[in-house]
Write a structure and sequence with these properties.
By secondary structure, this protein is mostly helical. It has 16 helices and no strands.
Amino acid sequence: MSENTQSRLWNAGYSKTWVGNFLIFFSFMLMQPAFPLYLSDEFHADAETIGWVMVGYSITAIVIRLFSGYIVDSYPRRMVLVGSYVLFALCFLGYPLAGSLLMIAIVRTLHGAPFGLTTVSNSTVAVDFLPFSRRAEGIGYYGLSNNLAMAIAPAVGLCLYGVFYDFRVLMWGSIAIASLGLLLTISIRFPRPRPKEHAPLRVRNILLWKGWSFGLVVICSAFSYGVVSTYIALYGKEELGITGGTGGFFFLFAAGLILSRLVGSRSLRRGRIIRNGTVGVLLGLTGYALFAAVPAVWAFYTSAFFMGLGNGHMFPALQTMFMNIVSREQRGTANSTLLVSWEFGVGIGTLCGGALVHVAGYHAAFWVAGFINLCGVLHYVLHSRRDFKRKRLC
């Protein structure tokens, strides 16, 4: 990597990984909110069955991410990233070919493996391209790529589904977007790999155990997001009578993300990592509490904005904490641990949310999501902040 590249934040390598990450999540999240509607309308699946189908990818993503950090830290990162991206794009072809609920569930479950490995390897490569002096800021902006995709893509997907009422449109759209991301990733000029010895595959090399405190906060936040994002379309349609405006929820979520990322990244550059995290968890809690407590259209949309603000401040702060307690040789493991925590939380939230909706209704599920989020906030305030001060290396 040249000296000029090392001094710039938006160098070619970092910029391409940023866009590549956006396309990974956009292609995947394009189908996310309309997927339950598709399963319900096409296969007459109930809420509990939908939960099991939706959680399949989370299970395999978690399993592969348990080993992703070890793989990324032990083998050439170009080989790992390009190879996993190829498999991720190819899996999309399985959706239009699946003709039954069982086959859809199998494809969804298998898709989680390359998704998990691709996101870990791409984020690790992005950090490798960041100059140390701007790492926290760069991590903040990098997180904006997947958060924007997670906010915008569902809205676009719901809009397209509402216009065409054909889920195949979303399937082929995801295939095209993922293929574009693959071509961009192949064009990245990677720095010459350093000779390295493969560390033995042991439990301590799979996850970053000293980052457990930050991971627990991520799990609690992801649980809440998993419950709300999975059932937002069904809840809006059945309880609030919102038949065509659920996409507005994700647009407001995106607006909150954009605002918080722009403000938060400047704050991270000044070293205010703990402060950013505190602001984030409190704003997120406000959003989930409002969503659960007030079953009204105005609260439905207002809570989305607060959730976006909270996630946009919290996630880059926690990722920076992970990065700043490890050396370069453990960045893959740190990223893996962060994303395993997120997928585990989303998966458990999706599964528990489906069971709660089936047994007790939407409101009970959303109150549980708010309570779990509160537990994460209390843990961060009372423990994680001090834990970071003790363990940080830089």
